[in-house]
Structures are given as structure tokens and as C-alpha cells.
Structures
1.
Amino acid sequence: MEVEFGVLGPVAAWDGEGGPVALKGPRHRAVLARLLLAHRRVVPVERLVDDLWDDPPPGAVGAVRTFVAALRRALEPGRAPRTPARLLVTEGPGYALRTGEDTVDAWCFEREVSGADALTAQVRLERLRRALSRWRGPAYADFADEPWTRAERSRLAELRLHAVEQCGRSLIDLGRPAEAVADLDAHAAEHPWREDAWHLLALALYRSGRQGDALAVLRRARTLLVEQLGVDPGPRLRRLEQDVLHHADHLSPDAAPGDAAEHVWARASAAFDRTVAAGSRARLESTVGLLRELAVTGAGGLEEARRQRTAAIAAAEETGDPELTARVIGAYDVPAIWTRSDDPAQAARVVAAAERALDHLPPHRHEAVRARLLATIALESRGGGTVRARRAAREAERIARRLGDATLLAFTLNGVFMQSFDRAGRAPERDAIGAELVELAARHGLPGFEVLGRLVRLQARSALDDPAGAEAHAAEVDRLAVRHERPLASVFTRWYGAMRLAGDDRVPYDAAEAAYREAAAHLGETGMPGLAEGLPHLALVCLRERRGLPAPTDETADPGPYAPWTRPLVLSARDQRERAAEALRRVPDPPADLLQEALWCLTARAALLLGDRGTMRRAREALAPASAEVAGAGSGVLTLGPVAGYLDALDAALTRLP
């Protein structure tokens, strides 16, 4: 575990077990504080000298070096003599503290507070309370008089005040205003110049049924602002006073933030019904836009969107207008991350309709529409590994890049991602696709594709054994999912969390299994049978294989589509070797999807157990390109450990067996 540092209070450090690190004298602590203040950047020795002494003595540079050497011994007590420091490093003209982003309380606090405003009230409250609990006193408390801490202390203090106010706001939003009153009252009394504090306190009192107290608070705020600062209250406070006096409707606890949006929706949809003729082409194209939004709202919405999409395509084809049909098919650009289709029969119908539309489009025209049809073919052909689908993906991407259309490019990159599984070991290429999606989506305001890009990178960084990178993308997915109302995204981060536990040998088996069972309990709510069917059983097979245990023998477990690859191991665990060997001889190549490396590794393990040389050679050839990856982790849902371990075992067995 890494050393952790605290500056939200007296400067401190704790070792990997939570014990305090002895930092010696005040100059040593000052050097550490100054390096932490630099946030991993290099601080020149001359700057350290100037900050530590008003009038530097002779030999100040040598003294700084002595302080640094002592800090290094304290922070890395196990480092061998004359080996390079890992944490407090010498670089260029000075020193830098290369500690992780999660090891300094102020950095964690700032990240938690800055991302909280976009969260739901309950999650926001929990996150802000956790952030505020990091404070042990004023920031850099033992260096409060130093000029070099002044700006940072002021900035952190302001951020803390904002966090306190947002905690109050969260309680009010949750319908618990009485709980917010005491803290907000103390906060406003201590910081009387903060109008937000007075505003929230008065609102909490009013929502608690204390109109008189709310008015008294607003009048006390007016008096303090005029007498102490010589300014009148701002327009928000003045307006709140009038609203409290007149019991304004919007102050009612029952006034939901979505009421106005619902009113606008009702009026707009009524106007659409009145003015757009029934059966018109405009209605058909508008329907696809609604289905696109419906698909990301949750399980019921996704299932209904799938059903109605097929009907919309059929209705478009009935018009005999290939251009309209092409637009209806291509407008459904819903980001997709899982590589097994939820409804293969429907997907085949969509692909066939897209191919017919392509055949009837005028040549050298409607390039954007053509690219959307090609991207649709690539997406709906996921897991098939066909040459046609791969070519469609690349052609769609070329058109989109030529046209310079960001939304179109994001959609076509989704198709390229879906067709990047023709062989094992392509995680680096998918990581690049995800990085481009994230950058493109962030620049052009495409939140759905930013979520997709980060999920792609979560998978790829997991495959490439970069847990910190994967964790960062998972956190961003959760934040974006709340901010942009994408509830299905949390399905994948929940499974990712279970996978992290499964891959950590320090986590007891029972805890890892429980995490998988908890994640599996939510699969029925997703509306994604392509993800849900057989995954819980497969995850437990992989977990037991990862921990060196025999496959589960529960005959009631549903292996779903993964039965061909799990059955040999399950039969072996039941001591049915002949049946296991027969099942292994019938094992097909895994589909071209996110789980192909995992399924090949399970096949390799069964071949090793049963001494099947032919299957060993097949598995070794398929897995060789993924030798640097973590088996299965590229799915973001399960892991079998390094592919290299399976290759080594196969090589040893093939050398040993006749």
C-alpha cells in the first residue's frame, strides 16, 4: 500500500498500515508540505530555500538536501541503499513528490467536491459528507503564516464552505430540511458574508414549516450585510424574502424540479399531434428519435425500443422510399458496448433491411446516410466475425472522417469497435478507439458516446493490466450516468467492481463470489439478455478457475450460450472424464467477442486436465496474440489472470506429452 498524506489539518503522513510516519522537525515537514503543494510538479531547490528561510543561511542548499534525504528514509524505509527513490525523486533542478492522486487528502477532497454537483441528492450528500470528513483542522495548519501556503489555504477553505452549503442543499432536496437547519445556522453565523448560506438556511426553515424564523433569518442577514460590509443583500436574498412572505408555490416541498419539464413535454407533444399529420413521414422519422432516447432510459425502455424499431423499419419499407428507409434505419445510433446481440433474429432483420436500402440508394449520393447504414450493419452483426461486417465498419469510418461529422464518426467508431474481435489480443486497438470516442464526445457534447468511450477504455485498460486507469474510467462512467440519466451504464461498472474483487487474491473467495451474485441479481432488470444469459454461471466458473478451484457442479446453474466452453470443466469436476473429453472434442471456436480470450483459456484448462493435445494446440495458437493481456478482463466483467500463464502451461504440457 502507498504512503498517504494529509494537509487538511497539520501536515502528516501515514504508512501503508495506517501508522504515522515520523517526519522529524518543522523544516522537514515544511519541505514535504511545499512538495505536496506543487501537486507532483518539480520544485527547484532555490525555491525551497526561499520558502523555508526569510534570510537563507550559508549552506541552506545543503540543508535542504539533508531534509530531503531524511524524508526519503522516512517515506520509503524498505528501500535498499543506493537504489533510486520511487516517491520523493530528484528531477532537473529540484525535487518532486510522485505520489498517487488518491494518496493526498486535499486532492481527494477536491475531486469529490468538484464532481458532486452533477449527482443525485442522496449520492451527492454521501459524497460530500465523506469529503468533509477528511478535514482535521485548517489546511496546512502548521504553516498558516507562510506566504507560500496562503493562496492554496484560501482556495481549499472556499471549497470546504461550498461543500458545507451543498450538504445543506442536498438535505433540502431530499425533503429533510429540518436536519439541515443546525449546520446551516452555525455556518451562516460564522461566515455572515456568504449570501448562499443565508439563502439555504431561510429555505430550510421555511420548508420545515417555520415561516417566521425564515423571515427573521433573512432580516438578520440584511442587517449584518449592511452593518459589517456596507452592502445591501443581493437579488436572490431579496426575492426569497418576498417569496417567503407570499408563500410562493415554487418554495413548496412538493414542487418537483421536473414539473416544468413535464409541462413543456405535454404542450410540445400535444402541438405535434395537432400539426403533424397521422401517418406522415415526419412522424415516422420522429418516432426513431424517440426510440433512440427510450433505449437509454432503462430495461423497459430498451426492450420497447427494440420492438418498435423493427416496426418502424417495416413501416418505412412499405412506403417504397429507400431514402426514407435508410434514414429510419440509420437514425437509431444508440451506443452499444456488449458484443453479444440481445435479439439475434431481430438483428438479422435489421441487417437485411440495411443491405436492401444500400442497394437502392442512388450511387455517389447521400454519403452520410450510406455511412449510417454501414455502421448499422457493423453493429448489428456483432459477434459474427464476418468479413462483410468488418468491411462495412471500415467503409463507414472512412466516409465519416471524410465528411468531418463528429456524431457520425462516433457512431461509425462504435461499429469499428464491434468488429475488432476477429482475433485475440486487440485490446490496444480498442483502447485507441475508446480514447478517440472520449475526446470526440467531450469536444462535441455527445454524452452517450463519452460513456461508451469510457466503457471501452475500462475494458481495454483492464485487459492491459492497468487497474488505476480502468478505475478512473469507471468513476467517470458513474458520474456521467447520473448527470445524463444513463442508468444502464451502472450495470457495467457494478460488474467491473465484482471483477476487481475476483482478480484480487487478497479478497476472500466468499466475498468475491458474493459480489458476483449481487451483480447478477440486477441483470434481470437490464433488458439486455445478450449480457444476462449465462453470465452469472460463467463468472463463477472463471472465479473458481482463477482461484485454483474446480468448476461449480450445481446442476441447476444455467450456462446459457457458454455451455460448450464450461461443460468440459464442470463434467471434470464431477469426475465424469469420458463425458468431459467428448464434450471437449466438440468445443467450437469462441465467438468473435469480448469473451473470446476467456473462453479459449477455459478450453485450454480443460485440455490440460484431459490431456487433449489437439485442443491444446488450437488454444495456444488462438491465445498467442494476447500473451501480454489479462484473460477475460477485457470484457470488464470477469478475469482469469494473465494469458501468459496459460500459454506457459500449454507449452510445458505439449513438450512433455508424447
Note: The chain is about 65% helix and 5% strand.
2.
Amino acid sequence: MTKTTTVDRPTGSVALTLRLLGVIERVGNRLPHPFWLFVILSGVLMVLSWGLHGLDVSATSPADGKAVDVKSLLSGDGLTMMLDGLIDNYATFPPLGVVLVVMLGVAVADKAGLLTAVLRAALAKVPTRAVTFMIAFTGMVAHVASDAAYVVMIPLGAIAYRSIGRSPVLGAVIAYISVSAGHAASPLVTPSDATLAALTAAAAHTIDSGYTVTPVANYYFSLVSSVVLSLVITVLAETLLSRRMKMITDADGSGEGGDGTEELPDLSLTTIERRGLRAAAVVTAALVAAIALAALPAGSPLRGEHGAVIDSPLVHDIAVFLSLLFFASGVAYGRAVGTVRRAKDIPGVMAQGISELSPVLVLFFAISQFLAYFKWTGIGEVMAIHGAELLDSSGVPLALVLVGVILVVSVMNLALTSGSAMWALIGPVFVPMLMLLRVAPETTWALFRIADSCTNAITPMSPYFLLCLGFVRRYRPQAGIGTLMSLTLPVALSMLVIWTALYLAWFAVGLPFGPGAPGR
């Protein structure tokens, strides 16, 4: 008798979501590169500012009662501003310097092999019952490695599950979800925190030109979120996903073909690698202790006015200290394992790390010009004032407004998967609008963290969705987008609901989202 193979075809809500994502994918594929998208938006802004200026569109600032008029870019003053500010707009773009400084240190730690070794060590010798949670939580920690976390964690998740006799497909999917859907939750401060903090501060300057947002302004919320989301992933993986995986296997009656181990790294660490980790840990502990001791005296230059710790160079310039920590620990590890042999090798490694940022640096040029034009026209401030007045007069509860913003941005995230590009686009509207509703920029940034994360796991627009599918197909060659979607969708939606509930509870209680951040 010939065996009949059943193709995995999602039904119901999953099928409907797949059709919706198919439309989004086709539309999104027709969008230009983000660089050209911001160039086009700058052109649209020129025409829009000219039209609104001609209509005498304005608003009254609730801060000082002065009129805010829309200025036209297609005027003598506008053209002069665009020409004179071209270089300064880019050179003074807040995220530019922050990202470059942080990546100088991260590049050394990455190229030396420290980041990969840390992730492998986190998963090695874990009790069987704790493997799922450790994969999920390690994925949260891995965000410090930026996009490299996907490349490292997905195969490691597969290996970890396979080593305890469970489906490597499920292990790979759990790792992928933790890195993608939990993208903005981490127990550590990550390079993206520095970028988004600078963009948040730039957006807040529409209302308050002196407002500062530090990379640790969401740290408390991010830390708690990483634990909560790891637990959510663990519970769903041990219940819903494990059953779904069994259904997939039973449906076609085949095992998971291919061992996929030829090109996958081993979880175990060598003696030399363990020596390297010890060296990195010693250097990191010594450096942290030295910084703490230097900041201990009340008159320390690392403290702020009147001996303040939160409002101080130690917090405001945290990106510098992060870069130094990555650099020092990376050099210590590299020297111990032999990946960094000579001092003259280090500048080359740092240069390589910066060269890998070149696509981001090119994108920053277009973004910086657009944001400078947008701020100069006053359109963002006028929109924020009228939007805040409309919401205030409508009587809609603030909690519903916040949930609405999360849902809107979550849908946008399906097509525009670059977090910094999307925040640069919508931050100048949402941040000042919510500031006028007495919501702090740090609180709005925390809201964006949720919306910019959960739907990452379900959009084919993300190259890492396809990367995960590629690893899944090593074990199940017949797997398709529907297979992966049926495993990621329920977790992504559950995380969106629970993370939003955590945010609303945090906001309602008035807890600070991070050091120096206001409670609301």
C-alpha cells in the first residue's frame, strides 16, 4: 500500500493570517529601499509643507501659548536651511556617534569570539527540564549581539533540543521567537538601546529642546520583560507548540530528516575557551569595580550636580562605558584563546566592525535629513498638538490610546522591519503627541519596544524568518512558511497580549521604566 503524505496546510485564523501576510509581503516587496523611502518622504514633505503653509495651518503651543506655524521648505529660508544644514544634519545626528562608539567595542568582543562563547556557555550543562527556559532567556541575553544573535541562537537551540532527544525543529523555533518576538527585551543594555534612546530624545526636542533620554531609560522594564517573556515562551512551548509539533509529525508520518550537524557548532566549550571566559570575567569585574569606586566619592566627575548619580555623566554617557566593557573583555578573551594576538590587530578588527555598519550609516544620512526637515517645518509639532487636543477632548481613556498605538505600530512592523527606521519615522509624531498628554518620552519608548518586537516572528518580510525556515528545513525538508507560521503565530500573539498587559500595569502603578526615567 502506498503511503499518503498530508501537506501541512494551516486553516482557520492561521490561514487568514497567512493570506494577509501574503498581501503585506507583495506590497512590501514593491517598496523602495529604506534609503530611497526617506528621500521620497523628504520630497513629499517639501510639497506638504508648501501646501500647509499656504493654508496658514498652525497651532497654539500649550507650553508657552505661542502660535506654531507650518514653514515651507519650498521657500528661500527652507532652501537655505536644507543646503546649509546638509552636513551638520548628518554629523550631529544623535544616533550616529552613539552607534559608532558602541560598535567599536562590540566589534572587538564579537570578532574575538567572546559573544558566541558566552551564548554557548549559557546553554551548556543545563538540566533537561530547564532547557526551554534557558534557550528563551539566552535569546533575550543574545540581543547584545544584535543581528548576530539570530545566526548563533537558531542552530544552538536546535542542538540543545536534539541533545535531550526532543525535536530540533522546535528548539530552533523557540530560539528564533526569543530573539525576534522578544527583540527589545533583555537583561543587558544593548547597542539598539543607544540608537533608539537618541532617536527618542530627538523626537522629544520638538516639545522640550533640553530633554535627554539615556540608553538605560527603559532598563527596569526591559529586565522584567525578558523574564516574563521567557516564561511565556516556555509555557507555550511545553504545551501548545509541543502538541503542534506532534501534529505536524503525525500528519505526514515522517521523521525529521537530516541530522543537520555537519555545519552546526557544538555547544561544549574547549579548555581554551573556558580559560578565555574566565579572563574576560575577571577583566569585566575589575573594570566595573574601578568605575564604581571612581563614582563613589560625592565630588566625583562621574557624578552630576550635587552628587547626583542618575543625572550624571555615568548614566548620560553609558554608551562610552558599554563600549569600554565590550572592548576590554573582548581583548582579554581574544588574548587568552589566540584570536587577538597583537595590539596592532585590534584597530583592524574595530574597522571591520564599523565597515559592517556601512548600510546603517548610509541609511542614517537619509533619515537625518528627513528628521531635520520635519522638525524645521513645524508639522510634527502642529500634528502633535492637534492630535493631543483631539484625544483629550474625545474622552478616550489614555490606556486605550496607548493600546491603539501598540496595535498600529505592530501592524506597521510587519512591513517595515527596521526598528530604527520605523522609530525615526513615527517617533517625531507619537513622542511629542503623548508628551502633551503627560506621557514621558521614556514611557512612549517602552510602548514602542513592544510594538517593534512581537510581530517580528511572523513576518516573511524579515530575512531572519527565512533564515529560521532554512534551519527548520534541514530537519524537515518538506516544511514551508505555513509550518513555521503555525509554530510562531500563537506565541507572538500571546507575547503581544501579555507584554501589553505588563506595560499597562507598570504604567498604572507609576513605576519608573529605568534609572532616571519618570514613573509615567
Note: The first strand starts at residue 58 and ends at 60.
3.
Amino acid sequence: MAEPLDVLVVGAGPTGLALAAQLRAYGTRFRIIDRSLDRARESRALAIQPRTLEALSGFGVTDELVARGNRAVQLRMHVPGRVLRLPLFDIGCTDTPYPYLLFLSQAETEAVLGAHLAERGVAVERGTVLRDLSPQDTYVTCRLSHGDEECETVRARFVVGCDGAHSTVRGLAGIGFVGSAYPQTFLLADLEVDGLERGAAHTYLSGAGMLFFFPLESPATWRMLAMRPPDAPDEELSLGQLQAITDRYAASAAGAGSAAEAGERLRLRDAVWMTEFRLQNRGAAHYRAGGVFLAGDAAHIHSPAGAQGMNTGIQDALNLGWKLALTCRGDAPDALLDTYESERAPVGRNVLRFTDRAFTIATSRNPFIRRARTQLAPRLMPLALRFTTLRGRAFRTLSELAIHYRHSPLTEEGNRRPRGGPRAGDRLPDAPAGLQALTSGPGYHVLLCGPRDAWDPEDLAAVGRSGLVTVHHLGDRGPWPGTAHGLVRPDGYLAYRAGGTDLSGLRHHLDRWLPAPPHN
């Protein structure tokens, strides 16, 4: 039998690829497998949030993602008698390098992450299926099949299921998946649309439901998402059916009796792919069972409201990856792995609640809600968007910049807490500009604010951990005023902060979570 692995990653979608990228950055011994013979060519998820762009920047892939994507920052809301032109992200958000929602198909995202791994000698083992897993004292024994070949037995310290809503890993581990399916049927297509203003996202509000067109660059110019009307004929999905639904929704949103009267005839053509599907709202009962972990859609599945799904999965992976890597190296205690569920499960539950509420409002046939959706919301939204503070708060929530781990066991506030600036558990803002790039390398980063000569060299030497802790003297360009210090985790969140120059609290924190002696 081959030498045991540190980690077996099951599933090579965006979540699995992001996890593999982080494991590779730490030199972890792992394999990544996927039952599909090829990566996704159609666009499932279609947008990358600012926090995800920040989190992936440490791998050097964000610039390529931005170059391939479309930074649409305007929304066109089609309502009876007019088209509302709504700015969404012009709020002066200065603490991130990416103050926008990037429209990019999942296929392109996977292509960029896959190329990153290939350049570093990591190959996705496609056509490989997990048949069984058996957790034991030290390892998880897995049985894999490769096409018609005989099964292979693999041992790994940890197995991570990144294998989607129908996760084999979750089923074999006996982890429940709680929730329900929505009754509506949805239609999805990537295609070309004549008569639609480019460079913006479009939504048509009607009593029957909602119709969206999102800008993409590849594999087609537009992504169409629509709810099939309850009285629509149950027939095989076709471009003609999509055209009929578009005509109906556009006419209804314009308050006219027909698409011609509405003056908004949109011509659909050249569909790259199309599908119909049902949505679910489910969450895993646990994110961990011994040596088995879940991430992404294997842990939570929900409606696409707010473009949260793929982004939440990637951030699951980047929360878990460094914890697995440091534990496998022997540099961190096993207790570090317990913080994955305590940090990410609340995030997953919040996403399930938010998307469920948004979806219910968008699809409800209750007369009061339908009236609010089609008549009241178009009148109130332009007024609400005049309030920059309100827009900014909404943006930070949707963009996932507001996610924090303040209540995590991995988070600690030291003595003499600085006044102002990010708190322990918050994401490190990119303010002053370039702070995130400075701390994007593997390992922890110590930030020292104040005069360089204020810090005792012996105290600084005591926080070293064999290349896993990097010290940065920031002077007066730090995130806190005056003399202060903090510790940035490998995933860009603050694990610790304190005022003054006494590093004893910082050393105590590191002794607890990174106690391994330096390697010779």
C-alpha cells in the first residue's frame, strides 16, 4: 500500500481547487480527485465577490480573474413605464482593492484555478470515483475506482468533501443534510440577446416572477435566469420557450399587454447551453466527522440570491486549508481543526437564511408581496440608494467583507485594546493600500505599529516560529492609531490585537495555536 496522504480532496469544482491551491502553498501531501472526465464548460455560478477576490489574491490568480471578467456596477430595473438606472457599488469603499462584483462564469474561474495548480505540478485526477471510506484511529481508508480499472485503496489523515450538493463524502460519513426543496422550476441559459443594453445587469419585475440577464464575457455575452410561470406548458426546454417567457415577462414588467406594446422586444439567439432545475435550501448537520470534513455545496446549498454560493464555498476552503496544512506539518494542535466548524457553520447558516428570505420575496405569489415587489419596491429603491451609508452596509454584507470571527476560540483581544481600527476576528482591511498584499504569504504575520525602536529585539525573536511568522514594521501606516500590534492569520483575518509594545499576550496566543518547536 502506498504511503499515506495528508489530505484527499474529493471534488474539483471551485471549492476543491481553492483548497488544493492552499494545500500546495504549504507543501501538504495531497491528491485531488473528481468523478467528471472534464471540468465544467458551462457557467453555473456567475459572480465573484470582493472578499473572494481578496482571498485568492495570495495565489496570484486574482488579476487573471479580473482580466477575464466583467465589472458591471449598474443595475437596470425594468418596471412599468420606465427603466430605473441604479448605481450599486459607487460607495467609495476604500478598504478593498476590489470594490465591485465581478461577473465571470464558473467555467472560467475553474480554468484559472486549474491552470494555477497545473503550473505547480498538481494534476486533478479526473474520472476517479470515491467508492467507500472508513475512518480509523489515525487515517481514513478510502476506496477509489478509475474507470474500468480495479479499485485502489488510499489512506489519508483527512478527507475533504468538496463534491457538491449530492456529496458522496457526506453520505459515506453519515452526516445529515437538513432542509427542503422549493416548488418552483427555474430556467438557466448562456446566450446572446439583441436589444439589451450591455455593461449592466437587468431585472424585469412582474407579477408572475422575475427575469434576470447578467453580463458575462464567456462562454456567451449574457446569462439568463428566469422562473418558469406556473401555467407555462411542460415541454422540453428550447430557445423558443425561453423567448416566449422573455416576451411575457418583459411585457408584464412594462405594464403592457404584449411584448410589442411594451417596446422591449428582446431577441434571444445562439444559446451555448440551457437547463432547467429546482432549488433547495439545505445545510449539513455538521461540517466535520472525525477525519472527514465538508466544504462548499456539500455543506450548504441554497438559491443563487446575492451570488453567495461559490464564494462561500471558496472561503470555506481557504478557512480550512491552512488549518489542515499546519496540523499535518505538526506545527499546530488538533484543536485548530475544531475551529473550522465553529467559524464557518454560522456563516453557512446566515447564507441559508438570507438567500431563503430573498428568494421567498422574489417568487412569492402572495398578492401583498407581489404588489410590494412590482409597485412599491421600484418606487422606494431609488430613494433608499441615495443613502450612501445604507448602500455601503448592504454592499459589505453581500460582498462578504463583513464576515468576521470575533467569537471564535481562535480570536483574542489583548490588553489595552487600540481605539479604532479592525477588531480581533475581523478581516484585515487593505487600508493603508497594500496591507493585504504585504500579508498574503503563507503563515502568520505580525503587524507592529509605531516607531521601529519601540520594539525589543529579544521580544520579537521570541515570536518566531520557523518561518511561519513574519514580522512587519508599519510605522504610522498601520491599521490602528498610535503604538499597537496585531497578528494576522493565514486567511487574512486578525487573530489577535493589543495596544502598546508588550508582546507577552501575543507570545501566549502563538504558544497555544502554533506551539511546535522550530525545525532543525
Note: The two ends are 30 Å apart (CA to CA).
